[in-house]
Amino acid sequence: MAVRIRMKRMGRKHRPFYRICVMDSRKQRDGEAIEEIGTYDTSVADKSKRVTINMERVDYWMSVGAQPSDNVATLIKKVKKNKFGTAAAPAPLIAPKEPEPEPEPETAEESAEATAEASDEGAATEETPSE
Question: Any idea which UniProt keywords this protein has (predicted)?
Fold first, then answer.
């Protein structure tokens, strides 16, 4: 029997939670596990507290031939070396832009004068056909 140490997905949509399990490699991802040896919660803010693994059981299962998956092997290595890194700082806040002042609305008389001036200028620039 090929035994693997891998993650079983739990939790709900968009909020994953994983159990680190020893399983037969032929079983489905969320199938029956031989033994559950840890957890991995992606939503915990402190990176060093995301993973909990019983290292004695990991060592035992690896001594009898269990192979860790790629992701579990990375987690085991980080737990052994205690190198999880630090969470990135949140982006700095940006002040909202000041709205531009709106032009004051013209009165009906001013708008009528402006249109009359525009039509007078247009008439003066027209050329008359010469004979």
Answer: Ribonucleoprotein, Ribosomal protein
Residue-range domains of the chain with CATH: 3-81 (3.30.1320.10)
Rounded to the nearest integer, the mean pLDDT of the chain is: 83
Each residue of 19-47: pLDDT tens digit? Answer: 999 999 888 888 888 999 999 998 888 88
Residue environment code for 32-61, b if the CB has 16+ CB neighbours within 10 A, otherwise e: ebbeebbbbeeeeeeeeebbebeeebbeeb
Stated pTM of the model? 0.61
User: Taking CA 118 as the corner, what is the angle to CA 117 and CA 123, rounded to the nearest 5 degrees?
Assistant: 95
